[in-house]
Task: structure prediction
Amino acid sequence: MSGSTRPKEIPLLRPAQTASTNRLLKERVADFPRGAVCYTDHQTAGRGRLGRSWETPPGTALALSVLWYPEGDVSMLPLVCGWGATRAIEEVAGLSAYIKWPNDSICNNRKVCGILCESGTHNGRLYVVAGVGVNLTQTEEDFARADLPYAGSILSLTGKRVSADEMAEVLLTHLQEGYARWQAGDMAGLLEEIKTRCITLGRPVQVLATEPFTGMAVDLDATGRLVVEREDGSRVAVNAGEVSVRGLYGYT
Ligand code: BT5
Result:
């Protein structure tokens, strides 16, 4: 990882294969200091949110997780990671990358990256394992076989082959920069940049809450919640969960 800003004493695990990089760091949280990183290009049981799975054929995608002990409201972290992931994808792939609130990175209307932040406590301190999956070399056939018609990889979108090591180095740099800015109190500045990258804003959305509703996504508030304006003009701030965006992933 030459050129990385990761301090030398921070462990970097690079297993040839593991079930889930998030799971590995969580299970061994007592063994590692803050900032520890684990990544692989062969994750066999990748996890998404809400018990969903993250599907990647061996050798085709980066799965990277970082262990942090943040101060403050950790609900911001998926957006902070999305800021870093979209910048890293742009730098490596030369594609414009957008954030679909709260946790997808989108290029050419395809999901290229997903983020899963999981928290727990160790020695009475809150930790978060931030996991980022980036599709690198899957083909359209791979996605069709996995029944993922709205997924894309850097190869399928650009024809460019990027290795997991190359992507990990650039991704880590941007993740660490975003994390440092957030922890230093610059969430307002980050949010302004996130808004310019947020493909959800300005579009009709369906919020899949206990009582689903539709509206226009108009803003992100100071805590990163999605502000949705209903037809009657009332505004609701959504803090998590599923939001379908018209024009994306087949939602019409
Ligand atoms: C996510 O969940 O998008 C979070 C994915 C996080 C993966 C990383 S890899 C490193 C770390 N270790 C882990 O075990 N996980 C993290 P969610 O928003 O729930 O989206 C999951 C949905 O995305 C699935 O139900 C599929 O529809 C779709 N999907 C699955 N695999 C995909 C892929 N490779 N590319 C695009 N979409 C995919």
Remarks:
- The helical segments are 21-27, 77-93, 140-145, 154-158, 164-183, 187-197.
- The two ends are 43 Å apart (CA to CA).
